[in-house]
Design a protein that fits this description.
Blueprint (H helix, E strand, L loop, with lengths): L1 H22 L4 H9 L15 H26 L5 E2 L2 E2 H14 L5 H6 L1 H14 L2 H17 L3
Antiparallel strand pairs: 1-2
Helix pairs in contact: 2-7, 3-4, 3-7, 4-6, 6-7
């Protein structure tokens, strides 16, 4: 029973994440979302500096929680039916919660400005069902914002 759980759930889940993460790099839409991160070069940077490793871990755990757990949970609750154009209702709800969670550490305007990128991260989750492409795009957005480099 434990062996079946490990093989059927954990290993297959990891394989699925890696497979669709790799497939996402063949899709031009992923690169379009990467390019949107360049907007971070033109807005004032935050007052704090975080290492690139910390930014990557932060992006990974935020995507794991908000997309893999929260958005997927909302999608299952709504039976994958409710859509607002290309976005699911689950994406909109998870993005609202994502923005509200940023209120704890950021000014109100900054927290509200996280809503649109969060919709992009949610769309990436909807398209690939893998945290890998969303994490990489999220990391790119944070890197351009925090370091404003090319």
């Amino acid at each position: 029973m434990v062996y079946d759980f490990i093989v059927n759930r954990i290993f297959k889940g990891i394989w699925y994440q890696l497979k669709w993460g790799a497939v996402s790099f063949t899709d031009p839409i992923l690169y379009l979302f990467f390019s949107f991160g360049l907007i971070g070069l033109y807005v004032p940077g935050p007052d704090i500096k975080l290492s690139l490793g910390w930014l990557f871990l932060k992006a990974f755990f935020e995507e794991l929680f908000f997309r893999f757990l929260l958005q997927e949970g909302f999608d299952r609750l709504f039976s994958y039916k409710w859509r607002l154009g290309p976005l699911s209702l689950a994406n909109v709800l998870a993005s609202l919660i994502f923005s509200c969670m940023h209120l704890a550490s950021q000014p109100v305007l900054w927290a509200l400005l996280t809503f649109v990128p969060s919709l992009a991260f949610g769309y990436i989750w909807q398209r690939y069902r893998s945290v890998i492409p969303g994490t990489l795009v999220h990391f790119a957005y944070n890197s351009f914002l925090f370091y404003q480099f090319m």
